[in-house]
Amino acid sequence: MTRYDVIVVGAGVAGSLVAHRLGRLGRRVLVLEAGTAGTAGMTGTADTADTASAASPADATGAAGPGHEGQPASDPPSAGFPFRPHPAAPWPDVSDLAGTEGIPGYRASGHLRQDGPLPYASGYVRANGGTGNVWTGLAPRMLPEDFDTETFGYGRRWPLTYDDLEPHYRAAEEELGVAADADEQREHVGLPFPDDYAFPMRALPAARLDRVLSARLDGRRVKDPVARREVELRVVGTPHARNGVPDPRYDAGRGYVPRGRDGRPDPDSRCAGSASCIPHCPSYAKYTPLKTQGRWSATVTLRDRSVVSRVLVDAGGRATGVEYRSYDGRASVAHADVVVLAAHAVENARLLLLSGLADRSGQVGRNLMDHPVLLTWGLLPEDAGPYRGPGSVSGFEGFRAGPARRLRAPFRVEFGTWGWIWAKGPVDTDVHHFLTERGLIGAELRRAVGDRIRRQFTLQFEMEQSADPANRVTLHPHERDALGLPRPLVTYDLDEHVREGMVAARAVSDQIFELLGAEDHTDYAPVAAWPGRFEHGGRTYGYRGAGHAAGTHIMGDSPATSVVDGRQRCWDHPGLYAVGCGSMPSVATSNPTLTMAALALRSAEHIEADLASRDRPVSLDPPPPPSVTSETSPTSRGASA
Amino acid sequence: MPITDETLRFTALSARLTGFDEEDLAATGLTDVYRAVASERLGPRRYGRLLREVPAEPDDVVDGELRQAAREVTYLWYTGSWPGSPPYVVSPRAYAEGLVWKAAGVRAPATDPGGYGSWADAPDRSGRDSTAEGSGP
Q1: Global pTM?
Q2: Nearest chain A Cα distance for residue B37, angstroms
Q3: Best interface-test mutation with A: which of B81, B119, B129, B135 has the largest number of A CBs within 10 A?
Q4: Residue range A393-417, pLDDT digits in tens
Q5: Yes or no, beta carbons of B104 and A74 under 8 Å apart
Q6: For an engineered disulfide with A193, which of A76, A182, A454, B10 has Cβ 3.0 to 4.6 Å away?
Q7: CA distance linking residue B93 with residue B133, whole number of Å
Q8: Do A60 and B115 touch (CB under 8 A)?
Q9: To which H or E segment does residue A424 belong?
């Protein structure tokens, strides 16, 4: 059996980056991935046909369809949806959740069971590359004030600041390949970029929808009835981890070369506007962890179909390795000096609970957060130009910051450019509507369907949800997966702060529709299609999950109240790290992948320092400079056992 | 009924149901495939009725069974799938050629991307759907 320096559990965004950074330093890294790689993954089935049928509808009623981040479509039998769960490594699918009449108003089946007042409405993917295969590719930074919401009277403070993370944000923007405009981000988002900062690539061109909204709304003011203040609207481009035009000013004028398939340098790679980022980018312009994996050094080994069932520690609590199962149930053990859990917030918590580790604070699995998303949708008076580029290119940033946070959850507003797909399902829903419900046929049908689809747009209000220990992942008392491992059980609710955020968002939406002269078609019906649904102040609200699970191994500055420290190391277990959004004390209003990536890169530095200090013979001499240490060959400790 | 005659009938029927002319339908290359799918899914009796009994104005169909069959075939042309739970997706090509996209003047996602930045301007719909010009609320 080979001995490794590091075992990484999970080959998603965080795990792939940690493995990359440590492998580049010569460390021997074993990456254990529960899902499948290769033929069942993306690389072999990347042609248009597979993607096309994957993007096709699952259900003409609109109750299910291609999902959003972390919500794979429920695939029709004939479709080539490239990710298929094996019973030994199942994952929650969006179709596992259905709305019902009465209390609690939803039913959860499948891998992720639920018993809370409201449903946790997001899924994830256990396949090589993880949920990072099916993310939207939006890569905004968190705001400096997001790192301490206790100032606003809610949530939990990070043990590090924006400035602490800033160099790692830069590194993450390089690794993921982010296209954005630093001036715009500084002026209209409030991020403190230095004057000379340039992103790897220039901002993507705004979508037609963005241009229509900008012309109609920039400078107009809307009232936030909850915070009792006015907010000026301005359409702002969102940073994207997808290839655009490289910025020659990047990296002090050294520029940037876009990365294409498998991370290979591909100077001409650009987002082609396939409008199929989920489930798959046929032009390989969107970042996925497979791009990082393509650049792994030879010292990194990926072993797929390997479901880690337990983390092993010695008598002193130090991590020594993991036990893992193949799909036929056969158990194996691998040893290493450092174990990094990077299996997604829910699965990381499940694994710590299965192992009975790291829970001195009692916080393992608790503080589960997501971005509950209030959707509103309608028809522009004119052509919205849907289904032609990324799912969202721009948004409103004015509701993310400031004292209004005291009164309601802050939110970011994404403009949805794929019609009503997230709200109602694929366009087949519109065909069904006009054909069956309205009884149209022939030329009338053609005109109605065309007109309807051309003018569709969606507003996606992504709410910050704060850490609440009552929102949690536990092990199900008796439901087990095919390997006999207890399934995760989630207890979830939305607090008053989030609900008030949705009240403000809906009021803002009403005013925006009015200013646009748009027809509002928002209607959280039928019940089956809206498991996340509640009444508040006499109005019905429906939400989706953004797939941004966070908080389950929360980071803090005390072992009494948190699971990991600021380096994402488990307080009680030297050599055991839990990385990913599960560490985040607040999920803020930004899509969390970039922040997760920055944290992972930061942890990789600390892990390397841990390994280097173990390599170093005990000596009273001053330690060698880091550059020498980092190049130390691990082979002396990497002998085969 | 000879095949050729059946094909002609099916094409003519499809044009009336979908609002697209026979040339548009032929351009999808799916007429024969859809004829076979419709025939199989509906069964010989319902399929036969559909070919023979749908009037020039399909709106005028009052018979429930016939109306249902007409809708199923129309749905097939528009979406590339036969309705059901879940719908039966005929093929990736059928998805790509779905009339729903042509009605909207949009390419089916993942099939024929417009290139970098193509999402920025008003779509060029020339030659895509002449009936769509200037339509509004």
Answers
A1: 0.91
A2: 14
A3: B119
A4: 999 999 999 999 999 999 999 999 9
A5: no
A6: A182
A7: 27
A8: no
A9: helix A421-424
DSSP type of residue B52: H
Query: Are the beta carbons of A513 and A376 closer than 8 angstroms?
Result: yes
In this structure, what are the phi and psi dihedrals at residue A171, rounded to the nearest 5 degrees? -65, -40
What contacts B126, CB < 8 A, 6 or more positions away?
none
- Quote the DSSP letter at residue A379: E
Of B71, B110, B113, nearest to A435 by CB-CB distance is B71
pLDDT digits (tens, 9 = 90+) for A194-237: 999 999 999 999 999 999 999 999 999 999 999 999 999 999 99
Q: Which of A2, A45, A80, A8 is nearest to A607 (CA)?
A: A8
pLDDT at A368 over 50: yes
Q: What confidence score (pLDDT) does residue B125 get? A: 63
On whether any CB of chain B is under 8 Å from the CB of A46, the answer is: no
Which residues in A lie closer than 8 A to residue B17 (C-beta atoms)? 441-442
CA pair distance A115, A94, nearest whole angstrom:
17
Using CA atoms, how far apart are residues A38 and A293, in angstroms rounded to an integer?
12
pLDDT at A559 over 50: yes
DSSP label of A593: H
Q: What is the mean pLDDT of residues A93-97?
A: 89
Least Cα distance to A152 among A494, A367, A400, A471 occurs for A400
Residue B35 to chain A, least CA–CA distance (Å): 18
pLDDT at A78 over 50: no
d(CA A13, CA A601): 11
Cβ-based contacts of B86 with chain A (< 8 Å): 57-59, 74, 76-77
Instruction: Output the six-digit token pair for A52.
Output: 């096309």
B-contacting residues in A 66-95 (Cβ below 8 Å): 74, 76-80
ipTM: 0.92
Q: What is the pLDDT of residues B11-64, one digit of tens each?
A: 999 999 999 999 999 999 999 999 999 999 999 999 999 999 988 888 888 899
Q: Which residues of A touch B92 (CB under 8 A)?
A: 48-50, 52-53, 80
**A520 and chain B: CB distance < 8 Å anywhere?**
no
Write out the H or E segment, with its range, that includes residue A535.
strand A533-536
